[in-house]
Design a protein that fits this description.
Length: 164
């Protein structure tokens, strides 16, 4: 009877120890579950922030592209205006040549100098317009590149947030 009682007490103590071990395991699981949920919330917030930042960068890059396109259009209009001015100056020069042939050589020389100056100004304006157009095209390409990079970062951040 004593042996049976000792066995029963020993079994009872083992059960109590097993129960205590299960309590510890359950508590640890609950703690890790809370940490997992907190990490998931943090990852979700980080993902949303990354998406917001990427959207902002895409908008800014699009605005840069629009500005560059508008400036390129302005440069094209300026070049067209300069071309029309050159054509007017050449027409005026033709008329002046005809007048000079009729005996107005001095006036012709003055006007020819004016036309040549206008042609020189046209040439300079055309060169300036070309330089502006090239720089604006480069700026547009850079802005497009930044927009593409921002979209790529957003995609990577979103993927990283999903993995987290």
């Amino acid at each position: 009877a004593r042996r049976r009682e000792a066995t029963r007490v020993e079994r009872h103590e083992r059960c109590a120890l097993d129960l205590e071990l299960e309590k510890v395991k359950t508590r640890r699981f609950a703690e890790s579950n809370v940490e997992y949920k907190e990490d998931a919330k943090k990852a979700k917030l980080a993902k949303e922030e990354a998406e917001d930042e990427a959207a902002k960068q895409v908008k800014v890059a699009a605005r840069h592209v629009e500005d560059a396109e508008e400036a390129a259009a302005t440069a094209t209009r300026d070049a067209a205006d300069a071309k029309r001015a050159k054509e007017r100056a050449e027409a005026k020069l033709t008329v002046e040549r005809e007048e000079a042939a009729a005996g107005m050589a001095a006036a012709k020389r003055e006007r020819a100098a004016e036309v040549e100056a206008a042609a020189e100004r046209f040439k300079e304006a055309q060169e300036d317009a070309e330089i502006r157009r090239e720089s604006l095209e480069a700026a547009a390409a850079a802005a497009q590149s930044r927009a593409t990079a921002a979209e790529l970062r957003a995609t990577e951040d979103a993927a990283a947030a999903k993995v987290a």
